[in-house]
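Notebook entry, structure prediction.
Reason for the run: the old model in the group folder had no record of what sequence produced it. Starting over properly, with the input documented here first.
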Amino acid sequence: VQLQASGGGLVQAGGSLRLSCAASGRSLSPYRMGWFRQAPGKEREFVAAIRWSSGITDYQESVKGRFTISRDPVKKTVYLQMNSLKPEDTAVYYCAAQILSGTDFGSWGQGTLVTVSS
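New structure, fully documented this time:
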């Protein structure tokens, strides 16, 4: 599966952004789709994920209540709605796909930069 992320930008603290991840290729039914982020000088970290077929979601504790992951089966797109953004949310955000029978996120899109100014 190929992934194309978009939607990053510059926003003030307290603002909102919506990231999109368009998928192409095979059916996404056996996949779990995720968002990760990597801040300057830090390791990449998990942000949120959604099982494509069931819609079950998981979130990193620090984004619960502020970020929402969703998917549009018609558009084969995964979204990350980010509200109440904080400067510490500044990072390059990546979308990724994990086949449920595997253990790793094996397909990655290019990153999209989110900058939150204070």
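Summary: The chain has no helices and eleven strands.
The old model has been moved to the deprecated folder.
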